[in-house]
Amino acid sequence: MKFNQIKQLFYALYLTNSFGLRLRSIPDPLQKKKLRLEYSLAQLKALNIVINVENSEKLPKNGQYLLVSNHRTIIDPPIIEVALKDTDIFGLWISKKELYNSLFFGLFVRNAGSVLLDREKSQMSGFFADVKKGVKEGSSIFIFPEGTRNKTDAPLTPFKEGSRIIALKNRLPMLPVYIKGNAAQVLKDALVDNTTKREVTIVIGDMIDYKEKKDLEIVYKERFDL
């Protein structure tokens, strides 16, 4: 591992945990959103990565939604936070148990606003109850329907069924976003050399009704011509 990679990783660890501590004492969702954005901008600035938002006019300014996104890299959440910076949309991230227990991300994930997803549990009723509670309190829900990072050459891996269930149970219109290109390669290159400015583009798609009968993965692909 090169020196710049080590330096970037240590700085990322510092940022993630320092913001995790700050977020612990912030109960107001919009204040949490503000801190999450500050964290995201700091992280991306350190990597010298600029975010371009395509179809930004399709972003609602407020309201509650199930935001669905493809998933390529660990910086996808910061990319999405930056895309939403001019809105009042605050979402709880669906986060795997591994992230909750992570030395790197755990403190941040637990305090930034999230819902724990433990796939080892035989019953998912507790998870759906936590989601419903968050929606009732006024939050949107942010999810990666693929369930884990896509490390293949395909633009998308199969969606899990849970996203559609969340939308239906909570009557949440779905806000699709798509992170274009190989963001994983952009991140890899930035970790090696952050003296070069790099760009990542996120595309905002047309809203999907929660009553949509067609499979979510199919509709998502149609929205972005995948």
- CATH topology term: Glycerol-3-phosphate (1)-acyltransferase
C-alpha geometry = globular
Percent helix, as a range, is: 40-55%
> Pairing-aware structural class of the strands and helices?
alpha/beta
Reported CATH architecture: 3-Layer(aba) Sandwich
Lateral arrangement of strands in the main beta sheet: 1-7-6-2-5-3-4
Name the poorly predicted regions. Answer: none
Instruction: Report the biggest beta sheet as strand number plus sense, adding barrel if it closes.
Output: 7 strands, mixed
Q: Tell me the count of domains.
A: 1
Mean pLDDT: 93
Order of helices and strands: HHEEHEHHEHEHEHEH
What features would you describe in this structure?
The chain has 226 residues and is of the alpha/beta class. The protein has one domain: Glycerol-3-phosphate (1)-acyltransferase (3-Layer(aba) Sandwich). It has nine helices and seven strands, in the order H-H-E-E-H-E-H-H-E-H-E-H-E-H-E-H. It has helices spanning 3-24, 29-47, 76-83, 97-100, 106-112, 125-136, 162-170, 183-192, 216-223, and strands at residues 49-54, 66-69, 91-96, 114-117, 140-143, 174-179, 198-204. The radius of gyration is 17 Å and the shape is globular.
Task: Summarize the SSE layout with pairings.
Elements: H1 3-24, H2 29-47, E1 49-54, E2 66-69, H3 76-83, E3 91-96, H4 97-100, H5 106-112, E4 114-117, H6 125-136, E5 140-143, H7 162-170, E6 174-179, H8 183-192, E7 198-204, H9 216-223
Parallel strand pairs: 1-7, 2-5, 2-6, 3-4, 3-5
Antiparallel strand pairs: 6-7
Helix pairs in contact: 1-2, 1-5, 2-3
